[in-house]
Amino acid sequence: MTDITPTFLRDTDHGGDADQPRRVAQALADFIQGARSTLHIAIYDFRLGDDLAGIVIPALTDAASRGVEVQIAFDHRPDNRSHENALTGDPKPSGTHEFIPQNFDGSGVQTRPITAAKLMHNKYVIRDGHTPDAQVWTGSTNFTDDAWTHQENNILTLASPPLASFYETDFDELWSTGGIKSTGVNDRGDIQIGGTEVEMDFSPGDGRIIGRTLAALIGAAQTRILVASMMLTSAAVLGALADALSNNVPVSGIYDRTQMDGALRQMSEAKIGLFNQIAPSFVSKVSERFSADGKHNFMHDKVLVSDNVVLTGSFNFSESAMSNAENIVVVHDQGLADQYATYIKTLIAAYS
């Protein structure tokens, strides 16, 4: 299944390889360098130190200089409103709105700030989206040193013109409006990649549908449920996991304890009760409390394995994700599900 390729990241302080950040930077640069016509990037957090920036930035500017249309839509929070999300969303320090113009102004790379009350939380790249060679890079991974060094994350690349066309629709909505309100409305679909069924969906337009998709996948599981999610605050997800445990379906997983401790203080008693039912089946990573200048070492994955199906993307298993600009892919393939299951089991062992 070479058309669908996962990459699994671990905290280099907890089992990740020391050269992982440079390998991710080079993989992204290689993906960029393969572009022939267009590169459309929607990214929540893009801030790299000199070493990693020296790999990625030239790949983007070189692509633009050889005639590739390079467009970067990014979450724009110059007033540091992202700190408000430290307990309920995906915290980041300010800096993306400075890093991008500093590195791309005058380069031929086009940039567009996305300003909204909620997050533009995507992390995807569409390469040559309207050609037979189209590919999509997606997953949970921001473009930062910490994302590639100290966080648990995953990247999934998929070679598929039909898939890319759905992502292009989402990107066009972001780019043309500079906001997220209209996104995720007309870009839900179900395709085949080399005989493998792949679904995709986007929020906020389909935010509640994605929540129901998560719950339905959990509810359909008979042999295994494995979860790696920074947050577990969605009532639908918590209820489905509690029901699965009641039905004796094997459930295991990992979440970020520091982020969840903050969220629990804001959750209803009913949701806290559901979380307490499932928590014994999970392990947790105690990340550092968020600060702008601290180490951002969250357990940052957003993955569900349900029997032989994998769901991944930028969508936290939370209520707030439904209102953000997010994307998911759902891949029906035992081999890929086994790879993700092995990865999650490795994380569980590391933090048990």
Compile the SSE list and pairings.
Layout: E1 4-9, H1 20-33, E2 38-43, E3 46-47, H2 50-65, E4 69-75, H3 96-104, E5 110-114, E6 123-127, E7 135-139, E8 143-144, H4 145-149, E9 153-159, H5 161-177, E10 189-193, E11 196-203, H6 207-220, E12 225-229, H7 235-246, E13 251-256, H8 257-264, H9 269-278, E14 282-285, E15 302-306, E16 309-313, E17 326-332, H10 334-351
Parallel strand pairs: 2-4, 3-8, 4-5, 12-13, 13-14
Antiparallel strand pairs: 1-9, 2-6, 6-7, 7-9, 10-11, 11-17, 12-15, 15-16, 16-17
Helix pairs in contact: 1-2, 6-7, 7-9
Polypeptide structure, described:
This protein is 35% helix and 26% strand. The protein is globular, with a radius of gyration of 19 Å. The protein contains ten helices and 17 strands. Helix 1 packs parallel to helix 2 and helix 6 runs parallel beside helix 7. The strands form three sheets. It has an eight-stranded mixed beta sheet, with helices on both faces. With 352 residues, it is an alpha/beta fold. It has one domain: Endonuclease Chain A (Endonuclease, Chain A).
